[in-house]
């Protein structure tokens, strides 16, 4: 069978979001090569028989030297492994590996979720990214788009010359994230599940927690995720000690913590398609999210949760207070509606089927 190389910037990108696709490809007899920095979740795939190649990547750094090393790494890797097709995920992996695939005429599929389009970064960084996207994506066999803004933006850059598919993010595994009865907590629990860094909305979550705890002491605000911005360690310490927020660490399996929550707050500034919202919704938990592409698609405002203006703490507080004022029955009905939405629109099997279809079509043309 074929050799398929899959690359991303973190091991959890494979385990949390692509596991079903990788398992399906493995079952079909393909040889899988997983390329990312080592993390404990990669062991799951090596135990299946997938091969692993470690790599060094500065995911958000702007060092030209480090990025050049990554470009050279991919060049050597592709020459050595000679894959039949490459699947790329996350920005740097998609751009630099895609660039080398294009140079070496290796078919590749790009999934580059979450465009950086903040006002602060709109000048120099955006100009650089536009060049990199053109270089990395112009020879792809298929672009997988997670939301319409991403699709329109990249297609314009590529002058509508590449084949693409629209997908509902990574989808959600409905058999793994099963519906759970709504909790009858004495204190409402609001989850934050994301990396601890500004653009994921941690600042807004904390400011909201400060205000809400002052007015509604019987609420809990629990943070799960890694410190991508170490400055938050000290900033959060006093708030944790003061009982404003709680820190649940990094969890391999979030399902028990989703089950005990009443809602999730996802105040992210930009997303491809947020898995945080999809997974909480699948388990019947309402979602309060920023009104941006990649979040709004997963929330039906007023029915499965609430949307609020991105970066607007007052709007977030208003949405949380609206949720608090609901009855237990209304919150439970909101959670059931969220589950139904996932079943109709975000089943991960749909994403896996689209990938398999594109991969098989590409491999047939190459043989």
TrEMBL record:
InterPro entries: Glyco_trans_1, Glyco_trans_4-like_N, Glycosyltransferase_grp1. Pfam families: Glyco_trans_4_2 (PF13477), Glycos_transf_1 (PF00534). One of its GO terms (molecular function) is glycosyltransferase activity. CDD domains: GT4_CapM-like. Keywords: Transferase. It comes from Sporofaciens musculi. Residues 16-147 form the Glycosyltransferase subfamily 4-like N-terminal domain. The keyword Transferase applies. This is Glycosyltransferase.
């Amino acid at each position: 069978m074929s050799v398929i190389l899959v690359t991303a910037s973190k091991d959890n990108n494979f385990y949390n979001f692509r596991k079903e696709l990788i398992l399906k490809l493995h079952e079909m007899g393909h040889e899988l090569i997983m390329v990312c920095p080592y993390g404990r979740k990669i062991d799951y795939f090596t135990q299946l028989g997938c091969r692993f190649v470690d790599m060094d990547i500065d995911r958000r750094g702007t060092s030209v030297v480090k990025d050049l090393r990554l470009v050279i790494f991919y060049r050597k890797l592709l020459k050595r492994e000679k894959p039949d097709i490459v699947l790329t995920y996350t920005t740097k992996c998609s751009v630099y590996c895609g660039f080398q695939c294009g140079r070496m005429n290796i078919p590749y599929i790009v999934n580059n979720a979450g465009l950086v389009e903040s006002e602060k970064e709109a000048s120099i960084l955006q100009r650089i990214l536009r060049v990199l996207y053109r270089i990395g994506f112009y020879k792809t066999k298929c672009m997988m788009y997670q939301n319409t803004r991403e699709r329109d933006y990249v297609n314009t850059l590529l002058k509508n010359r590449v084949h693409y598919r629209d997908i509902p993010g990574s989808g959600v595994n409905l058999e793994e994230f099963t519906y759970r009865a709504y909790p009858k907590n004495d204190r409402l629990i609001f989850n934050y599940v994301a990396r601890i860094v500004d653009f994921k909305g941690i600042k807004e979550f904390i400011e909201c927690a400060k205000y809400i705890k002052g007015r509604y002491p019987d609420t809990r605000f629990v943070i799960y995720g890694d410190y991508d911005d170490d400055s938050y360690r000290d900033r959060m310490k006093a708030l944790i000690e003061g009982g404003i927020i709680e820190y649940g660490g990094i969890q391999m399996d979030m399902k028990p913590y989703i089950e005990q929550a009443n809602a999730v707050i996802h105040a992210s500034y930009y997303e491809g398609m947020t898995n945080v919202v999809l997974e909480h919704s699948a388990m019947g938990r309402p979602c309060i999210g920023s009104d941006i592409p990649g979040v709004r698609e997963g929330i039906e405002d007023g029915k499965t949760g609430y949307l609020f203006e991105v970066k607007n703490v007052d709007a977030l507080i208003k949405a949380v207070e609206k949720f608090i004022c609901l009855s237990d029955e209304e919150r439970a009905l909101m959670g059931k509606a969220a589950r139904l939405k996932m079943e109709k629109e975000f089943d991960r099997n749909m994403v896996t089927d689209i990938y398999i279809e594109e991969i098989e079509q590409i491999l047939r043309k190459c043989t």
